[in-house]
Design a protein that fits this description.
It is built from two helices and nine strands; from the N terminus they run ααβββββββββ. The protein is α+β, with helices and mostly antiparallel strands and about 140 residues long. It has a single domain, classed as Immunoglobulin-like (Sandwich), CATH 2.60.40. The strands form two sheets. Strands 1, 5, 6, 7 and 9 form a five-stranded mixed beta sheet that branches. Strands 2, 3, 4 and 8 form a four-stranded antiparallel beta sheet that branches. The longest helix has 18 residues. It is elongated and about 40 Å long. The N terminus is likely disordered.
Length: about 140
Amino acid sequence: MRRRQTLSAIGSGIAITLAGCSSITGGGGASKEIVTNDYSDVLKASLGSLENTEVLGTDAVIVPVTVENTGDSNIEVGLQAEFYDGDTNIGTDDASKYSPKEIPSGEKKEFDQGVEGRKDDVTKVEVMLRDPENIESDSL
């Protein structure tokens, strides 16, 4: 019985210690902001916590973007996310003009926006929800 209480106490101590580390390591405390929403009257968006993952054998950091369409018609939206370390842009996930996402009326969808790297290297993420028709085309 004593062993279980000891293990339980150690586990609680580890959880408290790890919970306090997120602001020290960087990525856990990254600021996340939706800086542009061309559909702010009908699309409500929220950003999840940064996550480390692997894509085709390469380390990547993603931010989950949840978008809810409160309007009465389907909306096609272009998502773009810019990842920063301080003032330095370390990568942009820009599918806004090449593969817009359709959000049906009354539905909520989640998309992952990401770039090569690790969440500990990211201090800020800026997300844009754009009308694909209004995005200026880069030279292809």
